[in-house]
Design brief:
Largest sheet: 2 strands, antiparallel
Helix content: 55-70%
Strand content: 5-15%
Shape: globular
Structural class: mainly alpha
Number of helices: 11
Oligomer: single chain
Length: 268
């Protein structure tokens, strides 16, 4: 009974987070002024976010589970590198967690990203353990969706200067809730409480990939990297240019057309 309750809560948080991601994609393409993060009002930015959601969903629900069930390191790490490639542009150019949710959560997201990258690297370097790979999938990859719903809901308690002044405790409450979800998710996955998350049995033979599988995984990662690089260039080119005076010697000034304004094209 406990496993059923935990699984329902876990699946509910996943569905909630996915629905918010899908809604953000719709808003970005059709109603950019409703976005919590106005940077996604940029057409290129919301395209990169859409790619990220597709990759996360594919790795979490298709590639990752299949790779774990069949003990395929090629597909497991191929899917995870796809996820990394799709995440880096968003983290580098469009991270506004501090502005949207407060400094505590902004710092937490930065720390969590570094921690998860290091943990993946350490586990990849250690002796092969499908339990550890299962843990990375259903804890860290799934957390991309698990905290989104509660974090967005609690942010409404302090999403204006007036609300923030009246509820100075709200940001810490939000931080405490998402930190609790992170810890409880680890415990639930570690103790095998999620009914649909399975560790492969010892007798399952490791998957031996065909040559075409290696080509497909490598090709998909190279293709995504190229697409992301092109979109990053288009995104930086699409941002407005602001001129400001630049001194060249005493008493002389000349406009500089090369300063990039960090503000987005569309504001919410």
């Amino acid at each position: 009974m406990t496993r059923l309750v935990v699984t329902i809560a876990y699946a509910g948080l996943l569905a909630w987070g996915f629905s918010i991601g899908a809604r953000q994609i719709y808003q970005g393409f059709n109603r950019p002024k409703e976005l919590l993060n106005p940077l996604f009002g940029n057409r290129i930015a919301i395209t990169m976010f859409t790619i990220h959601i597709v990759v996360v969903t594919g790795d979490l629900f298709i590639i990752g589970p299949w790779a774990v069930a069949h003990k395929s390191t090629l597909w497991y790490w191929g899917g995870r590198i796809l996820l990394l490639n799709s995440s880096l542009p968003l983290a580098a150019y469009m991270n506004r967690n501090s502005q949207s949710f407060g400094n505590f959560i902004g710092a937490w997201v930065r720390f969590r990203n570094i921690f998860e990258y290091v943990l993946h690297t350490v586990f990849a370097a250690m002796a092969l353990s499908w339990f550890r790979y299962y843990l990375l999938l259903w804890w860290l990859v799934a957390y991309r969706y698990l905290d989104v719903g509660p974090r967005r809901a609690l942010q409404k308690l302090y999403d204006t200067p007036g609300k923030r002044a009246a509820r100075p405790w709200a940001e810490m409450l939000n931080f405490g809730v998402i930190l609790t979800i992170y810890g409880l998710t680890f415990l639930a996955v570690f103790k095998n409480q999620i009914l649909f998350a399975k560790v492969p049995a010892n007798q399952v033979a490791p998957h031996v990939p065909a040559h075409w599988e290696t080509g497909a995984v490598v090709g998909a990662n190279v293709a995504l990297a190229l697409v992301e690089w092109i979109l990053i260039r288009k995104y930086t080119d699409s941002r407005p240019v602001q001129t400001e005076p630049c001194r060249r010697g005493r008493g002389s000034e000349q406009d500089r057309p090369d300063r990039i304004d960090p503000a987005p094209l569309l504001h919410g």
